Amino acid sequence: MAEWNEPIVTPPVISLRGIVNRFGRQVVHDGVDLDIRRGEVMGIVGGSGTGKSVLLRTIIGLNRPAAGSIEILGMQLLEMSATERRRVEERWGVLFQNGALFSSLTVAENIETPIKEHTDLPDSLRHEIADLKIRLVGLAPEAGAKYPSELSGGMKKRAGLARALALDPEILFLDEPTAGLDPIGAAEFDELIRSLQQSLGLTVVMVTHDLDSLAAICDRIAVLVDKRIKVGTLAELQRDDHPWIRAYFHGPRARAAGIDQSQPSAAI
Amino acid sequence: MAETGWVRTGPGDQGTTQGTTLGTTWQFGGAWTLAHASTLDQAVSRLGATARALTLDLSAVEMLDTVGAWLIVRAAEKAGAAGAQLAWVEPSDALKPLFHRVLEAGPEPDLPEPKRVLLIDWLIDLGAATETVGREALDLLAFFGALVETLAGLVMRPARLRWVSVMSHIERTGLNALPIVGMISFLVGVVLAFQGADQLRRFGAQVFTVNMVGISVLREMGILLTAIVVAGRSGSAFTAEIGAMQVNEEVDALRVTGLDPMEVLVAPRVIALVIALPLLTFFADMMGLLGGGVMSVLLIDVSFGQYWRLLNNAVALNTFIVGLVKAPVFALLIALVGCFEGLRVSGSAESVGRLTTRSVVEGIFLVIIFDALFSILFSYIGV
Questions:
Q1: Rounded-to-integer distance, Cα A108 and Cα A99, Å
Q2: What is the three-class DSSP state of B114?
Q3: CB atoms A103 and B348 under 8 Å
Q4: Which of B84, B104, B319, B382 is the most exposed place for a label (fewest CB within 10 A)?
Q5: How confident is the model at residue B257 (pLDDT cuts 50, 70, 90)?
Q6: pTM beyond 0.80
Q7: Is B257 helix (H, G, I), strand (E, B) or coil?
Q8: Do B67 and A142 touch (CB under 8 A)?
């Protein structure tokens, strides 16, 4: 919020230490450490099955890790009481992969749900706030009265984003925000996230597969390889010589996205 | 933590003429955030009518979020609409991007008021609903036609029928339903005998309890209860199975592979249920008679042997067949509705749930309608 552009010496807003996740005998994460700074956009990438979404779900408390600690906004997530959990939840917003809008409510009612749950504002002000959020994410004002089933994929994501922003959170979690959008829609959505992040002073954590998103809006990137995490800026990771990271950032798609300039692009 | 937001009205600073100030200043300060929104909303609404020149001074605002910014922007818009000239003193650099973002989001658009519901709308809805029911009935009839066509094709080439699928469905809809159908029928037999004996005792005719149990179980209760249980159990399963395949685009995959869903999905289920339901009904009849027998022995001082003889006198083969002959028809109705609704599932998981409910309701409804039709038919032909 107010302190969004302070120098990055402030303590990290999210700090993971030694996270271990396993399902049955399969170990997904084995000692993941990650610090996310205030006001940055952190992209989480990794191959299929490396547990990107599991990591995101762990950070927002939907999945309890087998070991490790999670500090979020200065508090230990795993040791919180229910009241403390509620107070922290007011300070983050989550956009799930397909929006996860409540299908029995209109878009405006969806956005009002967290406001209704966490504050006791009068109805009229709550409606106004919902309308404002709808305009902020670039939806047409008429979209508020529509039901999720009447929206296109891109509009659903925008509506989901509006709901995630309902309580003016400090941290925004995005799970594959551009998956399923056409390239133009994806670029617009990236642009929207970037401009909201800058104007509202958000810290953004996003799981993504989209190399264009990584190049366009992520300040730093966390790569899940060998059950652990490697963090760096795009430029740093391009110099990394781990085979998977090399393949990822120097593959044909990376060239098409303009990330890898070491070889001439194969595109026409 | 910054103090709660506040707003003060002061003299304007847009220049003075001969010592009198022109206009007003609204000075905002403190934390303009969601946490204080109710208080802030009231504070803003107390700002009275303003002069022609209004300065909004945001330089003392310490914290700002979109809600706080909106309250300020809204107040400014209201004053602007009332004819005031607006001037802004910007907030601190850190808050500027957020403030401008909200300012640019613009005023609240005037959306058309939701229409009032009038009597005529209610009539229109009624008409539309009637039309939908009629159209669905026609669709179901068309579906029945398509099924008959498919079955005719299968009679010509029986090898094309999925026999394994038929057997599996007989097991699931028939064999696996035995415990529940048996128990319900037994208990209904018990209840019928109990109530019957109680009433008939007043006339000293308690021995006719056996007639009552025999005829009502064989003619109506056995088949009707079995059909209702099967509609709830298997009709819903058909809709959910086919519906889930529809959501998963498996039905489309069948079509593009050159397989007819009617032949692969619908025909085996219909055939299986038409075979299974009469068998279940026979079992239900027997269990119902057994339950009635147990109760008769306990209540009206007959032995099992006597019960058997009395039953033999009371019911003819006719009575039994009249009940059993309805079973294939009911089976056809239940399977037809179950598959029809399953194939109508579109896209969302939500529609699977909705149509499964419909399938059970329609199935039971049709079973009872046809039961009534059978009664009329039987009384007409005198059985």
A1: 14
A2: coil
A3: yes
A4: B382
A5: confident
A6: no
A7: coil
A8: no
Contacts of A128 in chain B (CB under 8 A): 70, 74, 108
Select from A175, A157, A181 the least CA-distant residue to A94: A175
Least Cα separation, residue A121 to chain B (angstroms) = 6
- Contact flag A4-B94 (C-beta cutoff 8 Å): yes
Tokens of B108: 């609240």
Q: Nearest by CB to B66, from A5, A168, A198: name it.
A: A168
Q: How far apart are CA A261 and CA B83, in angstroms?
A: 57
Chain B closest-CA separation from residue A104 CA (Å): 10
Q: Is A71 helix (H, G, I), strand (E, B) or coil?
A: strand
The pairing of strands B6-11 and B24-32 is antiparallel
Question: What are the Cα distances from residue B170, in Å, to A252, B120, B177, B277, B283?
Answer: 54, 50, 10, 9, 15
Written as one string, the DSSP assignment of B301-343 is ---HHHHHHHHHHH--HHHHHHHHTHHHHHHHHHHHHHHHHHH
- Token pair in block for residue A206: 């996003």
Interface test with chain A among B3, B32, B44, B70, by most A beta carbons within 10 Å: B70
Residues of B in contact with A195 (CB under 8 A): 101
Of B41, B62, B106, the CB nearest to A125: B41
Distance from CA of B49 to the nearest CA of A (A): 21
Whether B111 sits inside 8 A of A142 (CB atoms) is: yes
Q: Please write the tens of the pLDDT for every residue from B92-103.
A: 888 888 888 888
Task: Pick one of 2.60.40.10, 3.30.750.24, 3.40.50.300, 3.40.30.10 as the CATH number of B6-104.
Answer: 3.30.750.24
Q: Where are the domains of chain B?
A: 6-104, 157-381
> Are the beta carbons of B66 and A136 separated by less than 8 Å?
yes
Question: Sheet holding A26-36: strands in order across?
Answer: A26-36, A14-23, A67-72, A75-76
Question: What are the start-end ranges of the H helices in B157-266?
Answer: 163-173, 178-201, 209-216, 222-230, 236-247, 250-256, 261
Q: What percent of chain B has pLDDT over 90?
A: 55
ipTM, two decimals, is 0.76
